[in-house]
Every structure is written in structure tokens, then in C-alpha cells.
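Example (one chain per record):
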Amino acid sequence: MLMSSLQAGRSTKRRTPVLSELITVMASRCSARKTMWLLLWFMAPLAAAASAGLGEDGRKVYVVYMGAVPPRTSPNLLRESHLRLVGAVLKRGQRAESVVVQQYKHGFSGFAARLSKDEAAALRRKPGVVSVFADPVYQLHTTRSWDFLQQTAVKIDSPGGAKAAAASSPAADTIIGLLDSGIWPESPSFDDAGFGPVPTRWKGVCMAGDDFNSSNCNKKLIGARYYDLGEVRGPSQSGGNSPRDKAGHGTHTSSTAAGNAVAGASYYGLAPGTAKGGSAASRVAMYRVCSEAGCAGSAILAGFDDAIADGVDVISVSLGASPYFRPDFSEDPIAIGSFHAVAKGVMVVCSAGNSGPEAATVVNAAPWILTVAATTIDRSFESDVVLGGNKSAVKGGAINFSNLDKSPKYSLITGAAAKSSSVSDTDSASHCEPGTLDTSKIKGKIVVCNHSQDDTSKAEKADVLQSAGAVGCVIVNDVERAVANTYLDFPVTEVTAAAAADILKYIASTSQPVATITPTITMTEYKPAPVVAYFSSRGPSAQTGNILKPDVAAPGVNILASWIPTTSLPAGQKQPSQFNLVSGTSMACPC
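Predicted structure:
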């Protein structure tokens, strides 16, 4: 009943009672926020959606969704019917081909076109149109995990490793399609040594584009497509017309899902070992629907449409809408595309979102989607604070490559004590908010800063302190402590409030407190684990209140996987790491 209702292809004006009951009218909006920072954060998706694709003539891209492909209808016939439909609302002399930017004719029926508000309204009234909505902009939900889950299907210690296992594994014919930011095909995670022929049922292509050609695909990476992202291309405009990854996200998620076993992997020596995907013997198909700036809804639908026709077995989607402005399922590209994929027998797995720990923030919660939350694993990255006076080291955690002396010789000061005389708010100074500290008081010192979720980001605080001449920073944060943030050369570590109490007690006990911060080391068998990550979006969903969401949880904190080359290197490093440690439900989703 559910599937037949959504595929009915009725106009929104005549939506059936069954569909009205099964698809909620709109997601509930969140209550007024306590801070302007959060308010701006909530408004960002709306602003992006409103501006994306907006032309000088007032036109913008709208998606026209028309339900399932009618029986015995060829793609060419469907294409012509779409053009006739949009042509009927255009001014005389304007060609439909000039405004249509995407057409969906395989897994479902519809198109995306650059329209005026009145033309979009006219299309809503046409028979067979389920919904018409402005093209939304969604956001990406930014080795040891599989050992932690005790995955044993792919044995990497046998002769030949995972490459030898690929040819004989039952998973070798499984095709995982990812809708993401693209892929870096040169990564060793996508080497095809040991793989047999591409499954004959595969109908996809390897699209040539900027710095990418058909030879970049192989028997492991069997397909790659990219789509017009319009105004959502992001800063790397030159790489927009290519499946090549400019953000790193798609390379990370695809190698997490199906990357080969790569021995000797690490992030500049941290998390050393063998990095491998959850299904290392599977094939990979990348559908680039995102840039660093976001993911166009019209491109997401095109990715789903092609993936269904290409013959993938699983679709992994590590992106989503804001939890505070969730569209109706009939106007949500992920809900629409995944519905028709599941109807065709293709499993769809989506990230739950990174808006925790608040309740009712889960996204991608349609009943037909497998929604994945993120957990920690039993690995941590320790960077301690060594105090003067023969005090015991205070345990902290972060990723830094500190070059400070091992002896505690650097003056230690709190943000509150370094408050600028021009600032009256001591609390903001204790949190080291930009502009609140006296630079002369922190130069050459390690600064202790409180932090809460609605503060300026920790990375920005660290940058400001480093620019002001501080030699290090200790961030006090209970909620986010389990996720190790990366600070590269600037010595930063994060401690709990309980640990900070020891530091503050020491500062109060002497007129000249000193300390140092140790470079990060990898610790395993960390307990407790697994624990749901603080950032992982929680249920229940306002759209599917009678269904528990997320469905499952998987490792998503500081996951080591393949990455694109970067120019930001730790001191002394000449080559960028081929791997990166990243956290998010995006990292859990490919599991």
C-alpha cells in the first residue's frame, strides 16, 4: 500500500487520502534558539536553498516530481513528455530544452528546470505532477572500526591479502553506489589488483571530465558520474565538471565502505595499521552530487535515477537536510530517490545527521531508509598536559604534532586571567572568544580556555591564539572530548572539567605556573566503547514518530580512511598523507 501510494503519480491537488496519511505535511520546526549563533546556523540551509540557482531574471531551479515511470514507457518517450509539459507553461518562443537542467526517466519520472515562480505554480496544477519544489541544498554529514566490529569476512593476513580474496569472495559482485563529493581514483584503496571481470549486469559509465578520464576507472572503481551543481559548485569551480573529489568526503566514505586492505596506513604515524573497507571485495560506483559548498537536490535525484538504472545493489548517502527545516517526503530528494530505489530492490543506507545531542534531530528518517547513527570505537588519541612542580600529567585528547619541549617550561594562564581591559565579560574571556584577550598577556604562553557548543569553533579559537603568539592551548570541554579534533602543528589538547580542576588548582598554588603539551599518541582498548557520539543526531523523528530512528549505529568517530592530497602538512612532512581521520555520521553510514 505504501509503495503503490507514493508511486501513484497523482497531482498534489488530488493527493490520495492514503498518501496524505503516510507522508507527513511538514517537519515540525524547532523552538526559538538561545543564541544568535544557532539562529544563523539554522537559517543557513534556507538561505542556501533560496539563493541556489537564482538567475538575474528571477528564475531558479525547481524539481518537478511525477512519481513512478509509467509501464511500458521508454526513456526517450518520457523525455519528450517532460519537454512538452514544461513547454506548456513557458512564454511563446521559449524552448523547453533551454530551461531543463536534469531529467529523471529510469527509476522514477520527473525533471528539474529553471523556472519562474508563476511557471512552477502552473506546473503544480498539471495532471500527473506529484510535487514541485525549489531545488534544495543539502550538506555532507562531515581502520580500526572494522576490527572493533570483529568483521572477519575479508581476511587480510592471508597470502595475497584482500586483493587475493576479492576474486573469490561472494561480495566481489556486489556493487556499492555512493552519492557524494566524488572520488580520488589514484588512492590505493581503489586498486583493482586481484579483481575479476566487472559484473555483466553493470550498465554504468565512467564519465570523462576535468582531470578525469575513463582510464581512471577499473575493475574496482567500475563507474563514476558527475552532475551539474549549478551555483553549489563551491570554491573549486574548476573541478566542478568531473567525478574527481575536491572535498575529500566522497573518497573517505567510499574507501570506508569498500576500500581495499592497505597495509601501513596511518595519519602521519597516528592510527597505524591496515585500513580496509567494510566490504573490501565489493565494487564501487561514485555519483558526484556534491561540492564543498553543498549538494544540489536536483543532482541528488539524478544520482539516484542513474544508480538504479546502472545496476547498483546498495546506495550509500552520507548527506542530508537540516533537521530544523525538513521537507515533506514528497519534496525531499533523498526520500523520493530512495523510495524508488527500494521499490527496485536496491537497499539505501543514509547518515542520521550531525546535530546531536539534542533529541528529535535525526534526518533521512523515511521508513524505507536504513538510517545510521555514529558511535565511538575503542581507540583514542592522547595528548597530555604536563604541569610543573613534579605534578602528574593531566590526560587530554586531540590530534596535534606538538614540537614543544617535553619539560614543563611554558607559562600557563587562563583565559579569564588574560582578559583584555577593554572587555567587561569575564565569561567570554574564560572561553577565549576572539577579541576578548590581551595579546600581551598570552604571548609565549599556554592558554586554558573553556568551551561550549554555542561558542566560536575550537579551530577558530586556536587560530586566533596562535596568531596572537600563544604557544599552546588547553580546551576544557566535557561534551565533545570523545572526538579528537585535528590541530596539526599548534599544540592543542582537550580535557574534561574534572581534569581541568587539577590544572586550575595547580595554577592557584603557585605564582609562576608552567606546563607543556605532549604530541599525540594512539591509544587502543579505550573504554567505554562503543558510545553514541555526542554529535550523532537523535530520534524520535517528527516525520515518523511511530518508527524508531536511527535504525542502527556504527563507528563514526576518528575513522581512518582514504583522503585527497592536501597542502596542510605537519612540520617536517614532505608528502601529504593518503589517509585522514574524520568523524561524523557520514563515516558511520558506509558501514
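Caption: The chain has a mean pLDDT of 86.
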